[in-house]
């Protein structure tokens, strides 16, 4: 089912993505700088795996989040999805950083291949684990009280 979103709401979504993305990119930068492992790919690997798990957690939990905000307006799930998923986690994780750092820092022929394949496989596993956890955050049958199914 596709919902129609007004131009004003699209602009608000854009602002949420911008704010979340700026925070996520800053957090990635801060983590990779503050680890003290200069020139290492490991901080980036950790960031992307944490991000994969967090994205899975978000995707798994969103269906159980009440869609009506405190002010009575609908669309709370979409606001969370764009601010936390597209924005925060999109800025926090980075495919382009993985690609560039791997080519630059992994060395040799086998190193980059192992790093990229390992990143993707581990990320897929952690995203699925996050979804599993997110789906279980709500006790009971998963039905959000006060909403029709």
From TrEMBL:
Q: Which Pfam families match?
A: CRCB
Q: Which residues cross the membrane?
A: 12-30, 42-62, 82-103, 109-127
| Superkingdom in the source lineage | Bacteria
Any one Gene Ontology MF annotation carried by this entry is: fluoride channel activity
Which reactions is this enzyme annotated as catalysing? fluoride(in) = fluoride(out)
Membrane topology summary: Multi-pass membrane protein
Question: Mind listing the GO biological process terms from this record?
Answer: cellular detoxification of fluoride
InterPro entries assigned: FluC
According to the UniProt record, one GO cellular component term is: plasma membrane
Question: What regulates the activity here?
Answer: Na(+) is not transported, but it plays an essential structural role and its presence is essential for fluoride channel function.
Q: What is its main location?
A: membrane
Binding-site residues, Na(+): 90, 93
The cellular location(s) given in this protein's UniProt record come to:
Cell membrane
On whether Metal-binding is a keyword of this UniProt record, the answer is yes
UniProt keyword Ion transport, yes or no = yes
The alphabetized UniProt keywords are:
Cell membrane, Ion channel, Ion transport, Membrane, Metal-binding, Sodium, Transmembrane, Transmembrane helix, Transport
Question: Which family does the entry's similarity section mention?
Answer: Belongs to the fluoride channel Fluc/FEX (TC 1.A.43) family.
Role, per record:
Fluoride-specific ion channel. Important for reducing fluoride concentration in the cell, thus reducing its toxicity.
For this entry, the protein name equals Fluoride-specific ion channel FluC
